[in-house]
Every structure is written in structure tokens, then in C-alpha cells.
Specification:
The chain is 25% helix and 29% strand. It is α+β, with helices and mostly antiparallel strands. It has a five-stranded mixed β-sheet, covered by helices on one side. The protein has a five-stranded antiparallel β-sheet with strand order 3-2-5-6-12, with no helix packed on it. A two-stranded antiparallel sheet has the order 7-8. It starts with 11 loop residues before the first helix and ends with a helix.
Length: 238
């Protein structure tokens, strides 16, 4: 039986022959185990039958962008900062002094992967929330965003990589709403545009109450200088 490693045409025997003497060698059983850890049985069968993967569809697919922005609802009075990590490996950081611009500027983004929010609740207390929009990994260290992508494809059907090039208007923009329960024990996410509301998965979450004028849990506000407090309120001054 011929064992193919990673669709490269390399066999376990030829791989071992390419290594310097005395180094790790790969047996056929180990080769098969590594494949089984990462690939579905039907994919392994296709590779054994001679199929070779082509990354171009995958690369184009994950790079397609959509017009959307984050918002928070529920026990939230205002969002002061956020960090958004997207399925196309892009990230976006919005400081407190940039939040007003973020809510008004329309732009394309990759589908959401994870996000961090700094916000005040309805009583004025400060919080930090981190959450992921995936329930599992697709491969090692790669989130499975299939449910998120399906929701975006339903809301924005037949989008291609070339659609990334146009500037969206406000009517084009969707919202990824993160809802915070009153007791901060339940967090849900929804993709919203007009009257359409599509649920999004929420996997792992971390929530912390924060001291006033602090960025991370465990930081005491009395340690901050007056200049640092002004930075939290107004951002860097020109």
C-alpha cells in the first residue's frame, strides 16, 4: 500500500531516505496516524486514489469579505474598545477615541473569528469580554468557522473575492450583535441586517469585571496617574 504524506507525492520510505542518519524516521503506521489525525476518511480515500489538493479555492474562499461591524446589546451602556480577529487572518483594534468613527465608517471585513470587548454595563461598571465564534477547530490551530460562513453566505449570497473592492454604503452594512445577559453568565451572537436575524455560534468565553480606568483584570485604578486616566477618557492628545 502506498502512503502519501500531505498530498506531496512523498512516501514514508522516500521521506526517511531524505533524512540524515540517526534522525527520526516515519513508519507507515505513523504516517497513517498523522493523516487520520487531520483528515476525514473520505479525504484520505481520495488522496490514496491519486487526488491532489488545490489550495486556490480555499485561499479565495477565506479571503472573501463582507460589510459588517460589531455591536453589543443587553446589559451594556457603551463599548469603549474592541479587538476583532477575522477568519481571513486580519485583525482590527479600535481604541476608545476611535469608537465613534468605527460605528460610522462602512468597510469590508472577513467573517468574525474571535473578539475582545471593553464596555460599561447599565450601572456604569467596566467589563472585559473575550469570545470565540467557533465551537471546534477545523485543523490544528484553525477555527472551524463553517457555521459563521454559512450565515454570512445566506445573508450575502454568491459573493466572490472581486466583491471586496467596492465601498459599501450604510444600507449594505450588517451587524454582528453580541448580547450580554443581565448576570453576565450568558453571551449570544446574531448576524443582523434589516429584518433578518441569523444566530451565530459562541464557543469559549471569558468575562471579567474591571476596576474603573483599567484595561485588564487585577489592575488597581489607584495606581494610575492623572495622565493615564485622561488617556482612558479622551485618548491620546495631539
Amino acid at each position: 500500500m502506498k502512503i502519501v504524506i500531505s498530498g506531496s507525492g512523498c512516501t514514508g520510505k522516500s521521506y526517511n531516505a531524505s533524512l540524515p542518519g540517526g534522525t527520526f524516521t516515519l513508519t507507515e503506521s505513523e504516517d497513517r496516524r498523522l493523516m487520520l489525525d487531520r483528515l476525514k476518511p473520505e479525504t484520505i480515500a481520495r488522496i490514496d486514489a491519486g487526488w491532489r489538493p488545490d489550495a486556490m479555492w480555499y485561499m479565495r474562499h477565506i479571503r472573501v469579505k463582507f460589510p459588517w461591524r460589531h455591536v453589543m446589546t443587553g446589559n451594556v451602556s457603551r463599548v469603549t474598545e474592541l479587538e476583532s480577529y477575522q477568519g481571513n487572518a486580519e485583525a482590527e483594534t479600535v481604541g476608545q477615541w476611535e469608537m465613534a468613527t468605527y460605528t460610522q465608517i462602512n468597510r469590508m471585513r472577513g467573517i468574525p473569528d474571535t473578539a475582545k470587548f471593553w464596555f460599561h454595563d447599565l450601572q456604569g461598571k467596566r467589563h472585559h469580554l473575550w469570545l470565540s465564534f467557533s465551537l471546534r477547530e477545523r485543523a490544528v490551530s484553525e477555527s472551524d468557522l463553517s457555521e459563521v460562513r454559512a450565515a454570512f453566505d445566506e445573508l450575502f449570497p454568491k459573493r466572490t473575492l472581486e466583491d471586496n473592492d467596492y465601498l459599501p454604503g450604510e444600507a449594505d452594512m450588517a451587524r454582528v450583535e453580541v448580547h450580554v445577559s443581565d448576570d453576565f453568565r450568558r453571551f449570544t451572537a446574531t448576524l443582523v441586517k434589516g429584518d433578518v436575524r441569523l444566530p451565530l455560534p459562541v464557543g469559549k468565553t471569558q468575562h471579567f469585571e474591571l476596576e474603573p480606568f483599567t484595561h485588564w483584570p487585577g489592575t488597581k485604578s489607584e495606581r494610575l496617574s492623572p495622565e493615564s486616566r485622561r488617556l482612558f477618557q479622551y485618548g491620546p492628545q495631539a
